[in-house]
Amino acid sequence: MEQFDRVERYLNKIRNVYSGENQIFWKDRKMVEDDILSFFIHCHHLQDWILTLNRVGVSQTELKGFIEKHDSLKLCADIANRSKHCRLTKKQWSNAKPHLAGRQYTSNGDADSPGIKGKFTIITRNKIVDVLELAETCWKLWLEFSAELETKFICDNQKQA
Fold first, then answer.
1. Beta-carbon-side half-sphere exposure of residue 24 (alpha carbons within 13 Å)
2. Average pLDDT of the chain?
3. Which residues pair with 105 in a beta bridge?
């Protein structure tokens, strides 16, 4: 699915900044932060794509329940909505008021291909969360959910055959 591919590309951008395997320079720091926020926006909106391309009858209520079961997905939703909208008018998913707050940039140490490494944190009301850890967890949860839906699709089709 196109949206899964997009989310994975943004996740790879975050991974590359953490590892220093990129061509990002000091002047590009804000672009990195845009990529982080874009990851969370696109990751949260996987739910819309799943619902729209629905082959197994998953409901909006089931998708909402899936997100509500996982603190990481609730944080993802709030980060996405906070960065996408000027003022939030709907109830937050996590009620933790997460925001990108910690930014730590260093040289990647490669004289032949100079660039930067980055490490980022999300701050909530009661904890500090590493951006890459949160992104990896959200990605893993959506992949697992998608695999469950695919299994259901295959099983439903086999029953009909």
1. 25
2. 86
3. 118
pLDDT at 3: 92
The torsion angles phi and psi of 18, rounded to 5 degrees, stand at -65, -40
Q: What is the 8-class DSSP label of residue 90?
A: S
Asked whether 97 and 78 are in contact (CB, 8 A), the reply is yes
Report d(CA 64, CA 108) in Å as an integer: 40
Interval 55-63 mean pLDDT? 86
* Contact predicate 75/81, CB 8 Å: no
With beta carbons less than 8 A apart as the criterion, state whether 77 and 93 touch: yes
Q: Which residue has the tokens 């998953």?
A: 58
d(C-alpha 83, C-alpha 27), whole Å = 22
Q: 99 φ, ψ to 5°?
A: -155, 150
Largest CA distance in the chain: 61
Report the alpha-carbon distance of residue 120 to residue 27 in Å, rounded.
17
Distance CA 51, CA 152 (A): 15
CA dist 54 → 41, 64, 78, 93, 146 (Å):
20, 15, 24, 23, 11
